[in-house]
Design a protein that fits this description.
Length: 214
């Protein structure tokens, strides 16, 4: 079903500057149609974000590819993702690192993502339901951290959980439709900060989930 559409998308990613062959290979290998609701299966290889329920979205393929490339993940690395969502970005990263820890505040999204990854026989991802702004203290430090929701301000608790020399990508900005992905590198006396690209993510929401929200 998705062969030509997928090939077209991979070509689009190349033209947009995704040149890391490992990233292109995993983008080609992971079936995005598994991660979108059945009604959107036809559009799984369109280069756009799609709704996944609970007011959340699976990110645009170019954004997933560009952030994955900028994260520069090595196969021995321990990686933390905040915002599991559909599990698509988690599946991509799982193919490039040793172990991925992923945090989501909606239990149902986390459970659905976990089932999708098991169906794809991906076994190096650990799921956690909770407030990702706090990170995952028992498993820190992490070699890489990726935040896939927009933070109003720099989440300093996550920088604390980076290993020395570790890299974090985080979309930052109070504007709901206009944020910038920042690349943080942890140093001996703090961290450096560099702007990578403009993006539009759903907000990172701190604190407990009201019980009626699911
Ligand atoms: N990476 C996802 C896209 C994530 S959309 C994918 O590939 O499909 C952003 C996700 O972040 C949403 O599912 C949202 O519920 C979650 N989120 C928002 N604030 C959060 C928080 N404080 N802790 C954990 N998850 C959060």
């Amino acid at each position: 079903m998705s062969g030509p559409a997928k090939q077209r998308l991979i070509g689009d990613l190349r033209r947009a500057g995704i040149l890391d062959e490992r990233v292109l290979a995993v983008m080609a290998a992971v079936p995005r149609e598994t991660f979108v609701p059945p009604t959107f299966a036809e559009r799984a290889y369109d280069n756009m974000a799609l709704p996944i329920g609970y007011g959340q979205t699976i990110s645009q393929p170019l954004v997933v590819a560009a952030m994955t490339q900028a994260l520069d993940v090595g196969e021995r690395m321990k990686v933390l993702e905040i915002g599991t969502g559909s599990g698509y970005q988690a599946a991509i990263l799982s193919r490039l690192c040793r172990r991925l820890y992923t945090v989501e505040r909606f239990k149902m999204l986390s459970k659905e993502a976990e089932r999708r990854l098991l169906d794809l026989r991906i076994h190096n991802v650990v799921f956690h339901v909770g407030d990702g702004t706090k990170g995952w203290t028992p498993q820190a430090p992490f070699d890489r951290i990726i935040v896939t929701a927009a933070a109003g301000e720099m989440p300093l608790a996550l920088i604390d959980q980076l290993a020395l020399g570790g890299v974090m990508l985080v979309p930052v900005g109070p504007d709901p439709v206009n944020q910038t992905v920042e690349r943080i590198v942890k140093t001996e006396d703090g961290y450096t900060r560099e702007e990578i690209m403009p993006v539009r993510f759903v907000p990172l929401v701190a604190g407990a989930l009201p019980s009626f929200e699911g």
